[in-house]
Each structure stands twice: as C-alpha cells, then as structure tokens.
Design goal:
heterodimer, A: 60% helix, B: 20 helices, 72% helix, 3% strand
Amino acid sequence: MANNPDDKEYYLDKPENIDRLLKVFYVICALLFVADFVVHRHTKVALEEFPAFYAIFGFVAFVVLVIGSIALRKLIMRKENYYDVDD
Amino acid sequence: MWMTDLPPFVPFFLAAALALFTRGPVQGAIMLAAPLLGGLHLWFNVPVDVVYSLPVLEYQLLLMRTDQLSLVFGYIFHIAAFVLVVYTLHLKDRLQHVAGLVYAGSAMGATFAGDLITLFIFWELLAVSSVFLIWANRTANATQAGIRYLIYQVLSGVLLLAGALIHYHHTGSLAFDFIGLENPGGWLILLAFGIKCAFPFLHTWLTDAYPASTHTGAAVLSVFTTKVAIYALARGYPGTDILIYIGAIMACFPIFYAVLENDLRKVLSYSLINQLGFMVCGIGIGTALSLNGAVAHAFSHILYKSLLFMSMGAVMYRVGHTYASDLGGLYKSMPKTAVLCIIGAASISAVPLFSGFVAKSLVMTALLEQGQLIVWLMLLFASAGVLHHAGIKVPFFAFYAHDSGIRTKEAPVNMLVAMFIAAVLCVLIGSQPQYLYSILPWEMDYWPYDVTHVLAQLQLLFFAALAFVWMEIKGYAPPELHSTNLDAEWFYRKLLPAGVRRGLAFLRDAKESARAAATSSLHGIRSSFSQSSIAKYHFAESWPTGSMVFWISAILAAYLLLGIFG
C-alpha cells in the first residue's frame, strides 16, 4: 500500500492552518447567530420565533445525539466477532 | 427509435443476456447502451398513459403503465443505472455485471408494473438478482449475509402475493393503484413493502447485507431495492397516517447506530434508513407538497447516496476496508475522491445549493402546514443527525482526521467519472431545483430559496458542526471502535439459534433420561424375573435357533394336517 512514500507537507498538516480554518468557522457561526436578530424571518410556527431557534436546536440536538449514543453503546456494544462465535 | 410501449426493463434484460457472452469493451458498450438508450427513449418518446399488457393464459400482465409518478422513478433509475455501469466498468466479473443489469431491469419492471402480479414477479426478480452482488464478494460472511438477505426479500415477495390475492378477494381488482388498509390484504402488502423499505425491526437485512457486498455492489444496491419500495408505498399508500410515525422513527433511531458504527459502509446503510424515513413520512402525510417531497427526496437521494457509497467503494477498492478507526488522511492519496465524497456529504446534509436541501424542504414544510409539530421536531433532530454521521463522519474519518499513514492510489478513472456525474447532478439539482420540480407528479407552488429558510438551515448545520468541533476538541466524542452493535438481528442471529440449540439439547436430554428410565425398569423386571422360581424354565432367555426352527416346522406341519383332514 505504501508504495509511494509521501514526504510532501500538506496544508492541513500544519496545526496553525487548522486553527486558522477553525477561526473562520467560528466567525461564520457568530455571524449566523447574529443574523437572526437582523433579518426579518417569515416563520410558520411560534417555536421558530424563539431567537436563534435553529442554531440552538442544531447544537443541542447534536450533543443529545452523541450523549445518547454513548449511553446506547454501553447497552449494545459487543466484541467484533460476536455473531461468529457459538456459545 | 423503438415503440413507445416497449417496457423499459426489456433493454436491460437484453443487455444482460448479451453481457453473458461478451467481454471487454464490447461488453462495456452494451452495458452502457441499455440505460443510455433506454433513458433517452423514456425521456423523449414515452408520454403518460401508455399501457402495454401481455396475455398469459387467462390473465393480462400489465407490463407497462406510465404516469408521471412511474416516469419520474423511471428517469432516475435510468440515470443511476448509467452512472453505476460507468462505476463498475473496471470490474472483470461477469457475474456482477449480469446480476447488476437484471437487477436494474427488475427495478424498471416493478416501477412500470400496472398490476400486482407483474409487481410480484419483478419484486422477486429484484431479490434474486441483487443477492449475487453480495455473494460475489465470495467470503463466508458475504455468503451468510446474502442468505439472510434473500430470506427477507423472498418473504417480502410471498407476503406481497398473499396480500394481493386477499386484496383481490375483497375488491375484485389486482390493479396496482391505491391499496390502503381497508382489508387484511392491504396490511399484508404494506408489510411486504415495509420489509423492502426497511421499516423498524424489519431493517436489519439492509445493515447486514449492504456492508457485506462487493465494493461496487453496495452502491448498486443502495439505489434500487429501497426506492422501488418507496415508489410502491407512494402509489399504494399515500396519506396513510401510520406511515408518518413509522417514517419519523425510521429517521431517528438509525442515527444513533450511525454515530457508533465503525464500518463506514455500515454507517451509510443506517443513514440510508434515516433518509427513507423522511420519504415514508412524506408519503404518510399525503398532501401534494409532501408526496412531491417524498418523490423529490428519492430522486436526489439516489444520486447523493450512491455517490457516498461509490466513494466508500473506491476506498474499499484501494485500501481493502472502510473501518473509520483504521482510516484517515486519505485525502493525500485520493484527493479527487475526497472532494466528490464531500459533495455527496453536503448534499445529504441538505446544505443550501446542494440537492438534499431542495428535496428535504418539501417534506419539512408540509409537516408544518399539517401541524405535525412533534414529527417535525423529530425530523429536525434527524437532520442534525444526518450532518453528524453522513455529512461529517464519513468524509472526515476516511479522508481527514488523524493520518493513518495509508498511502494508496487515486480511484480508477471510470469510478471518478461516475462519481463526478453524480456530484454534478447533486449540485445542479440543488442550485436549479426548478427542473426537478417541473417533473414532479403533483401540482404545487413552492420555492425553497428564501432568506428565512436558507438562514435557518445554515444555522442548524453550522451549530451542529460547532458541536462536533467542540466535542472532538474536548474529547467527548465516542471513539471509533471495532465492535458489533446489537440490533434487531440479535433475535434471529443470537436468540433464535441459541433457543433452537437449547431446545434441541433439552429434547436430547429428555430422550436420554426417558431411555435410561425405561431400560432401568426393564432391567429391574428382568432381574426380578430371573430370580423368580419360573426362571429355571428358560423361557426366551436362551432358546437356541434350532429349537425355534423345530417348533415352526411343527406348527406348519400341524397346519398341513389340519388342511388335509380339516
């Protein structure tokens, strides 16, 4: 597999570049958050009128999903060859 | 070109027959011609309301019946079939080529079937042809997964046939139109469709078999079986309330598995069920907007889901596996595949300007219009979940994350071309949705791009991604581990075999102890008899064979005498 030794330095190999990208990402997040208070939105349900509803929902949903998965893993995780073994 | 009422499966079956006896470029040309010519013919020459029936004995098999619903699915199946043929051109495996063509043709047959018996025939052909894409992996695991897959698929067909006959008994019609749940036959047919559509608890054939299939097989499988089921549901059960809730569950539960699963092709399999959930939900609501949403979602989903499966197929082909824990940094070796995968990921995550956004919006808006707030929240939760497993996890762990040190080659040219076509279509549909909307079967007035909607979607996605970044940096994210995660298949892969083993062991023990009890009492009778006073007369204990022959002769002689003198 490693037939062409790769000594090239890639953009993402440098931690400072990743930091730079993340900073851009944080700025976009902040702008999106603020945009909610600037732009007039046409909402369908009352829930949507809650300030930055979608931003908060997205963040919380993601965290709930990951925490739920970790809890689920305790319940359902078995060794990889679980089904191969006869008891 | 050719007749308007030529059933669309015919070119595929012809090509499959020809592919049996050809090889190399000729075979490739034949395989490309089937979806290309068939698709162009369907687009330019075939209007709605074409009917073609074939009399078999006393029965008319409706092999072709077009309306806008079947045509839309026909278009996308042809596009996908063409892309997939390009994707598999490098393969030198006649079995997979022929099986793939028969499989795609069966999907066309089922899509244009006008009656339930024709549907049943192609339903079973779908099952029998597709299993070879799993078996073609030629490993013990693939063989067994294929058998389990086939059992589910054939069971679905049997239920469909039984349901069709009961439906006929109640309604006097075998037409494949609205079926509903008025009679028991309708329930059986719903169950049959539900198996193929991976309803909760009936879904494990999918997550079991797709990751076990060949590197190209998973992409092919991801297109047809489940979307034929979506088409069948949209035709037979629009506006059936129970589908709203089934769809909502389907959208939510698989994302937890997708977070935990290590094999990225299995992640995509769970993600596939999640996507089907949105479509099933849209069918359940049953308004023009939501049904269009289900169809548009199926249309764009076929492209981005096969794109994702194709990119993982390319990784599988080059690296040999798709375990997230052992991959990473592949963008250095496969930069083009990485970019194409990210386009698929952006599409499935419904990033504005990509195809998922313009399709998913329809169902979501329809839910709000119908006041289904809880279900809407569930699907919104599922949307954030999609971003995790399909949008971030698949491209991130395969191509970025920590560098695994794996250095390999870029995917073969034909694979890249196929993925490129799919990616272009994803962007085209996403940025120019009017073309897709114009071919949808129902009338609607909807446009997804307004400030409110785009802002809401961007907020949802960026803040979900922010949560991902935060949890990765803090180390809260669950690590990718080699493991098996228990699912409904536990019942028949663990409980049932264990139960059968226990049952057999119990019966064996029972037999042993019954025999021991019987023989010991016999021994007891014999020993007490041998101690009794009559034992000395040597009854049966030690009769010599000679004396037995003597007494038989005596009896026969007595019969003879009686016969002569009696």
